[in-house]
Amino acid sequence: MKTKPFLGQGCVIAMMLLCLFSCEKSDTPLAAYKYPFSWESLPKNFPLVAPFPDNPQTKEGVELGRMLFFDVALSGANDISCGSCHQPEKYFSDGIPRTNIGADKSTLHRHTPVIFNMAWQNNGLFWDGGARNLESLSVAPITSIHEMNQDLKQLSSELQNRYDYKERFERAFPDKKISTQNILRALAQYQRAIISANSRYDKFVRNEGERLSALELKGLHFFEQHCRRCHSTDLFTDTQFHNNGLDSVFSEEHERIAFGHGRVSFDSKDIGKYKTPSLRNVARTAPYMHDGRFSTLQEVLQHYVNGMKYSPTIDEGFRRADGTYGIALSKEEQEAIIAFLHTLTDEDFLKNPLIQNPFKH
Amino acid sequence: MDDHKKDSLRSTPSHKGLLRVEIKLVNEELPFSLQTEYKNANGDFYKVGTLMFYLSKIQLFNSLTGESFQDSKSYLIEKSLNRTRLTFDVGWVDTSVVFDVLTLGIGVDSLQNSRLDHKGELDPALGMFWDWVTGYKFFLIEGNYRIQNTSSWQFFEYHIGLNPNYRIQRFDMVNRKLNQPIKFRGGKTTTLILEFDVAEIFKNPHTIDMSAVHSIHDWKDSYLIADNYANGFRAFVFY
Predict the structure, then answer these.
(1) Contact yes or no for A184 and B117 at CB 8 A
(2) How far, in Å, are A12, A216, A257, A266 from residue B133 at the CA level?
(3) What pLDDT, on the 0 to 100 scale, is given for residue A50?
(4) Which of B119, B129, B219 is the closest to A139 by Cβ?
(5) pTM summary value
(6) CA of A136 to nearest chain B CA: how many angstroms apart?
(7) What is chain B's Cα-based Rg?
(8) Most C-beta atoms within 10 A of its C-beta, which of B3, B127, B177, B185?
């Protein structure tokens, strides 16, 4: 079957219909789905987003990017893909604190972040903001010896004779070439098409007939009061960098990886600051924080209430009258917030066939 | 690069001449070669295995009339065991103008440096990118060094990038970085010889103590090295 606009409002319904009728039909050919990417018809409760003139999105580009994202040929040993760490069924994270499935089997320093609503993330990518855009970011995992350990020249030549890539690149890009540039652009187009905007909360704020329980509403109230200033807008992130009191010292080891944003801005005022993660789907994306140190939302709330550690760059908004840092929340208030966070789970996302692994059917 | 080759083969316009740049590597006046032992300003010894850098935005000016020739591309220079790439063609320049000023950037300008999805000379497949922060390595030198009065060779590597290290250099007859005006003849090639003195990397204005700075750990170190290599270029034309 064909679907109407995939992105945005109108498409929310289309997506649901699509799932009702076709989710089980795994034999539906890919070509049957359509991706009109209209930046005008994005989720109504989301902020506006500028288009990407350097890499305009096309259906062909997104589909090609999706194939590349899940193709193990992107790794030197042809054993892992982007999707091995960024798993669609886990909202493109991996459920473990710090993965070690990369080429050299070393444990990475940071937790695999979720990937969705990336089109709105335009203030730096990675936990520390080091990558400027999705196109550039992919170079890192593809070539890193700790991740995919692939040579970019070899990748372009390997893809020449693999599947129907030749035709797909021809259709997706004006210069028709299988090149580093087009590989990076296709991957970015696909990642920008991964949108999560259909949780119970979304349907509630868009007046689509969804109701929140009294407890959830209470949680929303406390969330607005204490959390929204950073986990802001309906993206639930301000895309800025903050120190939320996880550590008191930041080691210089491993090329200052612990400096967070300070490592890439070279400004000591940014040491220990990390990008505010979106809290969409957060009930399903444990463990939490840049190093996956907390395994439950209860632990996260405990941290905000009485686990904060002081360091010079800690967010001063957490300072209490007595000079300690933290958010005063009773057990009930914490539970209400957690109940609210559960309303941010987007079940339809998991069923959206347009973002799934195309090799798994 | 392919485009340039095509350009230079294209039927030669009679009112334009081709600007070709040839990098001449020297080490204190003597021809430079890889894996050769040199002494640096601090009295220590070094041997180079790989030298790579980008040159960008080559521009020629007539300082009286303001007329100019402007190229916006970046070119990767390489001298390594894998590859020698010291010559490139920039483009066709009007024969009616005599140019007395040359400017060029060492590195990649901030706009290009803000993304890696470029083709040709800036294809990240050429290996000159950072993976922890978006951008290109502007200048890369790797090799071995030996502290005076010791016998063991250690590895050194200077990888320099980031926008503050993009250095625009001016070459003219006043600052004595250009030997004479640059002219073009219809259908002919003018070769601009850009001499780079590798010894300058360790010397001027900052004397580098390689036992302290053998890789870039601190951005302050990168500024020192960038100050130095930016000083290492001279331009010559001969007719």
Answers:
(1) yes
(2) 36, 40, 12, 11
(3) 78
(4) B129
(5) 0.91
(6) 5
(7) 18
(8) B177
Phi first, then psi: what are they for A332, rounded to 5°? -65, -40
Residue B47 in tokens:
């041997």
**Distance of alpha carbon B150 from its chain centroid, rounded?**
32
Tell me the pLDDT band of B238, cut-offs 50, 70 and 90.
very high
d(CA A72, CA B127): 21
Partners of B93 in the β-ladder: B17
User: B 100-129 residues with CB below 8 A of A?
Assistant: 114-119, 123-125, 129
Give the closest of B115, B125, B131 to A135, CB-based: B115
Summarize the confidence of residues B90-96 as an average pLDDT: 97
CA distance A85 to A101: 8
Q: How many CA atoms lie within 13 A of B164 on its CB side?
A: 9
Quote the tokens at residue A274. 């990390």
B16-27 vs B189-197, strand pairing mode: parallel
Task: State the average pLDDT for chain A.
Answer: 89
pLDDT for the residue numbered A42: 82
Residue A160 DSSP SS3:
helix
List of E strands, chain B: 16-27, 30-31, 38-39, 45-61, 68-70, 74-80, 84-85, 87-94, 101-106, 137-146, 154-161, 167-172, 189-197, 233-237
What share of chain B in percent tops pLDDT 90?
Answer: 91
What's the token pair of residue A28? 């539906």
